[in-house]
Specification:
The complex is a heterodimer of chains A (213) and B (285). Helices cover 24% and strands 27% of the residues of chain A. With 213 residues, chain A is α+β, with helices and mostly antiparallel strands. In chain A, strands 1-2-4-9-10 form a five-stranded mixed β-sheet, with no helix packed on it. A five-stranded mixed β-sheet of chain A has the order 3-6-5-7-8. In chain A, helix 1 packs across helix 2 (136-150). With 285 residues, chain B is mostly helical. Chain B is 68% helix and 0% strand. Chain B is built from 17 helices and no strands. In chain B, helix 6 packs parallel to helix 9 (132-141). Classes of the chains: A alpha+beta (213), B mainly alpha (285). Chain A binds chain B through residues 24-27, 31, 33, 49, 51, 131, 164, 167, 169, 180-190, and chain B through 102-105, 107-109, 111-112, 158, 161-162, 164-170, 173, 233, 236-239, 244.
Chain lengths: 213, 285
């Protein structure tokens, strides 16, 4: 569905007013800037963009109505410190944040007129940007793929893994995505942002008040 | 602006110093009365540089047909000016090891610089009257100001990089630095090169690699390093699409007479083939 590009900042859906948005010459459009842990859904012809290290972003849209959005998340490390912990005992606590990020995005799209059978998904990120770290990017990729398969949602394209950070901009109205690999100069800055986010979710109690759908 | 730069550079005195062997050779090359034998002697006084020099001279990087097994032969075959460049190029990573930082790993920093050096050399070989070996050194040194900023002004450096990320990687790093600090890494590096009495060609390439129209004496070399810097970004992230990196100043193509369609893909690919060997020669121990 071809919507005309917005000539002024479109109204944000309720709950997304805090997301930073502005005009971008490079995208020739208004766009929302996502930080780790945030997500954004829009029924308008505006972009959503983020920069990803080992975090992952799902871009989901209803291909008929054009409503859609993006999230940006990662799974926390196992609380037990056991290297396989996330697969066994801590599975639920580690993945609940992933489930949370995916379900919020999908539910808001559905609540605003999206139809489950029309949803298409694109997946980005999960890079191994720090040399001497365990491959947490791969964990995030595996989680997202498993989640989408379980939910019966089709991934129409993806650019995941490898050693590069990425800048991703997604236009839900058209489905257009641009992925740009970022130079290694940005690795540490992006990793620091993600570590800070990880710290903020790990500080939350495991049996907390996360609402599951 | 210049006050801030001088202050920063005063702060790094003692942390980074040029190797003695470079300073000696530099003086000799500038001295009209010096001889090749005198330069060979200066080289020999530094056993570790002697080893590095012979290693480079006998590597595929030069591709000489015969073995170069003495310093005097290396000086004759390679040339005195180029020996001076090599004294700088083979020691630059060590020279700046005194400026560690939390924003970029030295390995990643020097890989970008080495890509720029390799591509500058590849481009210069296709241009008449452009010293390929000299612009190699310029490429290797072009971002040295960045290491000073990252070490001395870590908070402002971080703020600059966050601005770049917030822009969706549209705002170039040097412009973000200007917004945050009032100057950029190119200006700072150029001033450092001037204080160090590096050859004027190196000074201009470092100072003007983002602003080539300001280059007075060496516009050609500055333009080569400018193009090489952008193509180095392509080599680094493994793309052959110029839309994935910052734009190249169209003026650089005019000055060099190079044809973008002919050189971009070929030089990026060639540099990617050369990088592993070059890392061993220039960034190894």
């Amino acid at each position: 569905m071809a919507l005309p590009p917005e000539s002024r900042l479109p109204l944000a859906l309720p709950g997304f007013e805090h997301v930073r948005r502005g005009w971008h010459n490079a995208f020739d459009a208004y766009a929302a800037r996502l930080l780790p842990g945030e997500y954004y859904v829009t029924p308008h012809n505006e972009g959503v963009y983020t920069t990803l290290g080992s975090c992952i972003s799902a871009c989901i849209r209803d291909r008929v109505t054009g409503i859609g959005g993006m999230n940006h998340f990662m799974l926390p490390a196992s609380a037990s410190g056991d290297k396989d912990g996330w697969k066994s005992t801590s599975l639920s606590s580690a993945t609940r944040y992933g489930n949370f990020a995916m379900e919020h995005l999908i539910n808001v799209i559905l609540k605003n007129g999206g139809q489950r059978q029309n949803l298409e998904v694109k997946l980005f990120g999960g890079g191994r940007i720090m040399k001497n770290m365990t491959d947490i990017g791969m964990r995030n990729i595996s989680f997202a793929r498993d989640y989408l398969q379980t939910e019966g949602l089709r991934v129409t394209s993806e650019d995941v893994g490898d050693i590069f950070p990425r800048m991703v901009v997604f236009f839900p109205a058209t489905g257009k995505v641009r992925v740009k690999r970022l130079r290694s100069l940005h690795n540490n800055t992006i990793a620091a942002q993600e570590t800070q986010y990880l710290g903020s979710i790990e500080d939350k109690p495991v049996s907390g008040d996360v609402e599951l759908f | 602006m210049t006050d801030k730069i001088s202050e920063l550079l005063q702060g790094i005195e003692g942390l980074v110093t040029l190797p003695d062997v470079f300073i000696r050779i530099n003086k000799l090359v500038e001295d009209p009365d010096s001889t090749a034998a005198g330069i060979a002697q200066a080289v020999s006084q530094d056993p570790s540089f002697t080893v590095r020099l012979l290693r480079v001279a006998n590597s595929p990087f030069y591709g000489f047909s015969s073995t170069i097994d003495t310093v005097s032969r290396a000086v004759t075959v390679i040339g005195t000016k180029q020996i001076r460049n090599l004294a700088l190029s083979t020691s630059v990573a060590r020279t700046f090891a005194g400026l560690p930082n939390d924003l970029v790993s030295m390995e990643n920093f020097w890989r970008h610089s080495l890509y720029c050096a390799l591509i500058a050399r590849i481009l210069a070989r296709q241009i008449r009257r452009c010293d390929a070996e000299a612009v190699f050194t310029a490429g290797l040194l072009h971002d040295i100001g960045e290491l000073v900023i990252f070490n001395r002004l870590p908070e402002q450096a971080k703020e600059s990089l966050l601005l770049v990320l917030d822009s969706g990687d549209e705002l170039p790093v040097y412009q973000a630095e200007q917004q945050v600090m009032g100057f950029d890494h190119a200006q700072l590096g150029g001033e450092l090169a001037r204080q160090w009495n590096l050859p004027p060609m190196l000074q201009e390439c470092i100072a003007f690699h983002h602003d080539i129209q300001k280059a007075q004496q060496y516009p050609l070399e500055a333009a080569v390093v400018h193009i090489a810097n952008i193509l180095a970004l392509m080599a680094e992230v493994g793309t052959l699409d110029t839309d994935d990196v910052s734009p190249i100043d169209p003026h650089a193509w005019e000055v060099t007479g190079l044809d973008a369609d002919e050189v971009i893909v070929a030089s990026v690919q060639e540099a990617r083939e050369e990088i592993a060997e070059a890392e061993k020669l220039f960034l190894g121990n």
